[in-house]
DNA sequence: TCAAAAATACTCCTTAAGGAGTATTGCTCC
DNA sequence: GGAGCAATACTCCTTAAGGAGTATTTTTGA
């Protein structure tokens, strides 16, 4: 099944010990695969990478200390040959797109079964871009390969969007930030433009979908 | 550590094979515990319960075919002595409250480590109500024991709330449902009353928090 | 240091949402 | 079969949000 010359060295990064235990079971039951590291945070990973030889990283994208998209980008910059497979509960189109465009070779849902996981790992090592089977049914690979148009927000805009998402009115936000309600109106209008919509709730939904603001 | 007279019979219900593998590892490494069943859906569980003897159920609350709160209530009605521990990624106060008030003896985050999980299982079997340690730090048990005031919505109200949550305006909803925009206004007003707020975004946030509408 | 980008603040106007009622028609359950 | 709830629809009024501009002051990066 795997390249026989030597074991494939795998790392798992996930803040769920149960998932790590599960991956351990899956990998240890397979000749040709070797688990050479397990980390619960992005920091723990970056502290150790470079000190160990790795072929493939299974990367949870919701870690306590960073989002998977930027972690993936950085990993790929430092180690272009590293195969990264995202491991996540999230099945939003926008997130999957961003991960694949950040250099991930695959995207696995945590609902995937061990067999599915092994298949994806094999495909990824062979240079293919893969999804877990549940995702394959729901998403078109061609669509996922298109660049995702995510509006770029300034920090002030992000801040105001978060307050709006919390259900605050323009007046309340103005009071919170010690600025004129009219300024808040301007930022709100910019947000509506950038998200190409006419109501804030839709903008908030879109922002949550693309990970701009937390859920 | 455990009652020595016989093994504690445990069942795991989770739609994530990886988590099941992880729990297997945790339980099999422990004398006194025995995994007597593993299920990926609420239906699979209810089909088999009654046919096997069980002491404790680890219950994922986000299953593909039902929500943990109602599953927990039903289990407790049929098997009052069964110890149920919720297992979830969600750490919303409202959800935890509802689970505990539905008869769960504990609430574990999936980020809990094996040791934490075993401790909670022991506490629960001893009649205590327990949380994983991360939750213990963030929530007051007294607060969690208070009944959660969740507004009861009619089906029409739920339907309209979902459309509002999707970012639709009253006019659009009226067109979708073939009713007068004024009727939508009435329902909207009722929703604001029931959620005790003055804006729909807050109502939507509260509804999502208490699981009334999906995220 | 200077131009671009970001943050601030405003006007004028339109539309949608929120607040507080009232009222009629169906169900449906005991 | 009638009380009660759900769903429907309305009025009148206030406030907040959205649309389309313009303009000044900071900040910041090249």
From TrEMBL, chains A, B:
> Organism source for this protein?
Sphingobacterium athyrii
Could you mention a single GO BP entry for this protein?
regulation of DNA-templated transcription
* Signal peptide residue numbers: none
Phosphoprotein: present as a keyword of the record? yes
Q: By what name is this protein known? A: DNA-binding response regulator
Q: Which UniProt keywords apply?
A: DNA-binding, Phosphoprotein
Q: Which Gene3D superfamilies match?
A: 3.40.50.2300
Q: What SUPFAM superfamilies does the record tag this protein with?
A: C-terminal effector domain of the bipartite response regulators (SSF46894), CheY-like (SSF52172)
Cited InterPro entries = CheY-like_superfamily, NreC/VraR/RcsB-like_REC, Sig_transdc_resp-reg_C-effctor, Sig_transdc_resp-reg_receiver, Tscrpt_reg_LuxR_C, WalR-like
**What Gene Ontology terms describe what this protein does at the molecular function level?**
DNA binding
Segments forming domain HTH luxR-type: 146-211
Task: Name positions with the PTM 4-aspartylphosphate.
Answer: 60
Entries under PANTHER family matching the protein: TWO-COMPONENT RESPONSE REGULATOR (PTHR43214:SF43)
What Pfam family does this protein match (any one)? Answer: Response_reg
Classify the source by domain of life.
Bacteria
Query: Residue limits of the Response regulatory domain?
Result: 9-125
């Amino acid at each position: 099944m795997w390249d026989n010359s030597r074991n494939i060295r795998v790392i798992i990064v996930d803040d769920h010990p149960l998932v790590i235990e599960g991956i351990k079971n899956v990998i240890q039951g397979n000749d040709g695969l070797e688990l050479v590291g397990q980390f619960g945070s992005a920091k723990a990973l970056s502290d150790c990478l470079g000190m160990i030889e790795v072929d493939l990283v299974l990367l949870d994208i919701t870690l306590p200390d960073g989002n998977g998209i930027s972690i993936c980008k950085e990993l790929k910059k430092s180690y272009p040959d590293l195969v990264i497979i995202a491991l996540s509960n999230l099945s939003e189109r926008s997130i999957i797109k961003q991960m694949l465009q950040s250099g991930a070779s695959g995207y696995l849902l945590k609902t995937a079964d061990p067999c599915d996981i092994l298949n994806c790992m094999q495909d990824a090592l062979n240079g293919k871009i893969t999804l877990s089977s549940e995702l394959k049914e729901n998403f078109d690979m061609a669509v996922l390969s298109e660049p995702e148009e995510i509006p770029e927000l300034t920090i002030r805009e992000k801040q105001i969007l978060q307050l709006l998402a919390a259900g605050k009115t323009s007046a309340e936000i103005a009071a919170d930030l010690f600025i004129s309600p009219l300024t808040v109106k301007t930022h709100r209008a910019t947000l509506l433009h950038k998200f190409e919509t006419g109501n804030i709730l839709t903008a908030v939904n879109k922002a949550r979908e693309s990970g701009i603001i937390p859920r």
